[in-house]
Each structure stands twice: as structure tokens, then as C-alpha cells.
Amino acid sequence: MPAPSHSSKKTKIGKTCLTMFSGISSILAVENLERLKMMSSGKHQLKVRNPWFGVVTVFLFLAATPVEGLSQTPADLAECSKIEDNGERLKCYDNLAGRKPKEPVPALKSGEKPSQDPGKYFSYFSHLWELDPETRIGRFPITPYRSNYILPYTYNTSPNYDAVRAADPGKDLKYEEAAFQLSFKVKLWTDVLNQKADLWVAYTQRSFWQVYNFEDSSPFRETDYEPELLLNFRTDYSLLGLRGRFLNVGLNHQSNGQSEPLSRSWNRIVANAGFERGNFSLLLKGWYRIPEAVVDDDNPHMEDYLGYGEIWAYYFWKGNRFGIMLRNNLDFQNNRGAVQLEWSFPLLKWISGYLQYYNGYGESLLDYNHAVNRIGIGFILKEWD
What we know:
Elements: H1 6-40, H2 51-64, H3 74-81, H4 86-97, H5 124-129, E1 142-144, E2 149-156, H6 161-167, E3 176-189, E4 197-209, E5 220-239, E6 242-255, E7 265-277, E8 280-289, H7 302-306, E9 309-317, E10 320-328, E11 337-346, E12 351-360, E13 372-381
């Protein structure tokens, strides 16, 4: 906007001063008239208001009135009318009217979380998959996917000797070993095609470490690598008293990176649905194994042991998380399945104690056809509060 002309400034100052003096003169004239009336009535004790009270009143009124409100002269309006740009011309008129523009809201940086209402509760799934506007943090930040934990001590009553001795007949295994899992994800595409859907890439690694097998130099017995590509749809519907929060579909590859005869791998199309009610979260997982040629299949009949899906359920209470996983092949003649029970209890702000029990098939790829009975204790990254 062009700067106001010198003549416009003089007009504003002159008009302001004229108004002040006019107000002061009027008040003084009224006070003098009242004095004359009371003197002519013969009253000697006069109670006359202090004339400076009127002066102060006028001064305060003028101080509270924006100068712009007193300066909308034709010359000022004419200056604004000469501006060709519509936006700038509107700003000029707003300035003459004393209207101040609103401060712009700064945009969020990548990975920056929006401010949240401290009194509002956001669920485990909402934080995990950024389902609400207040929990969305944009693209590329690395966030937890599945649980991240370490179990420095576990005890397995049924180690899988057959698998390791197929490669090394003299191999021995300890009942005690450590286990840990690392799992994270990264959002690649926010609001895919302007829909309530995000594209994620995820990675999970789970290892079983014979750390107490000092005679064999404490080797890693098994490590499974599991990258995924997932398209997550944000949903909001009711089903059997539960709130459907998300549905994701994608591709999953899992392998242990070993050579024959210990090599294990498979590829799947996966679909997962999340439901919530209060402090309860339910995750339904299903998959379809992409067929392989018989000569390339490292783990035949995998579905006979792992089935076609599993159920995860969590309950949150005062910083504790109670969890259960159920899996079954739904074959009642040769029934096989697995159950995992877990309890996470508060220790530090971001670290909880972790107790895990597993019984059944498929704890790892190497053990897909071997029943395991294990209990372990350790620590877990607390991402649900």
C-alpha cells in the first residue's frame, strides 16, 4: 500500500485538535451558564462541578478513539481507490477503518505434533496410526509399529533341537536365552489421493540369542526379518459395540536370512482391522500366502501350523497393558495354534517392565512346525500413554 501523503497526515492531526478544542469550549460554556443562573437566584453557596472534569473526559474519549476512525476523509479514500490490486486495496480500506488483520497460524514442520487438549484422551490406535487430527505428525518421522522390547532372560522348556541339528548334528541348545524385537514404521504418503488413507512402510526384526551358551560362543539361534508395505484407511463405524478405527492392507515378506537347511521364508497379502472401546483395543489380522513353486518352498504346509490369521487384544489400566494373542489353524482333526500372554507394568516414563509367555507353534520361522513353551521377563518401550 502506498504511504499516506503529507497532506493527509496534517488533515488527521488538525481534525483531532479541532475536535478536542470544540469539546472543551462547549463544556466550559455550559459551566459558565450554570454559574450565572445560580448567582441570579441569590444563592451564595454554589456547588459547581470542576470544569476540568469535562476536559479530562473529552481527552480520554479522544485517546480511546482510533485516529484512523477520525481520518476517513475523501482524500484518504481517494488514495485507496487508486490501488489496482484487489487485496491491497482492501487492506487500505481496512487500515482507514482501524481494522487489524488476524495473525496467520504458523504451519507445522515435518514431524511436529499439533497441540493437543490436555483433557482429551487419544487411544492407543489413534497414536499408533495417527487416526485423529491431533495425533497426525506428517510424513517421514520414524514411529513404533509393533512392540519394541528386550527379554534378557527367557526359559524355553522345549528347544527345537531337530532344526539346528539338521545343519550341525553336534549342535546343542540351552533352555535359557535372550529375545528382543525391534519394530518401526515410516509414513510415505499422507492422505493418498485426498482420501482418508496413508501409505506406510514398516519393518520388524525379532531375534533369539543363546547368550548363555558360552561353550558355543553365545550365537544367535534365529533372527526373522519382516518388511511390509501397508495402505492404512482411517475409519469410524460401530460394530457389536466396538468402534472400527482403521483397516489396512498390504504386502508382507518374512525370512530368516539363513541358508539351507535352516532357510525359512514366505510372502503374504495381509489385511488388518482395528477396533476400540474405552481402554480396550482389538486387532484382527488375516493373511493369504502367495503360492511358491514346490522346489522353492522352504517351509511347506506353513498354513497347517500358522493358519490364516490371528487375534490381538489389549487392555490398558493405570499405565499397565495386558495383552493376549490367539492363533489357530481351524483344523479340528489336526488342530494347531498358539497363545501369547503379556503384561507391561510401569517403571519409567518411556520404559515399562515386561512379562511374556508363549505356548504353541510359529514363535519364529525356524520353529513354525515346532511347539514352544517359553516365559521371559524384561523391558518394553512404552508407546501407549
